[in-house]
Amino acid sequence: MVRIQKQDVADVHRASPRTVEVVVRGAVLAISCVFSYWLTSGILADVYSISRDDDLLGGMWSVVATIFVYRYSHAESVHAALSRMAATSIGFALCLVYLLILPSQVWGMAALIGIAAVVSTKMGRPDDTITTAITVAVVMVVAAINPHDAWRQPILRLVDTALGVAVGVLAARLATSLSRVMQTPSVEGSHEQFRDGVCSGPRENGHQHLHEQIQTHVQTELPEQGGTRR
Question: Is the pTM above the cut of 0.90?
Answer without folding.
Answer: no
